[in-house]
Amino acid sequence: MTLTLTVPPRADADRLTGLPVAVIGAGPVGLAAAAHLLEQGLPVVVYEAGDQVGTSVRAWGHTSLFSPWRYVIDDAARRLLEPTGWAEPRRSSLPTGHDLVAQYLEPLAQTPELAPM
Question: Could you tell me the residue ranges of all domains in the chain?
Answer without folding.
Answer: 24-109
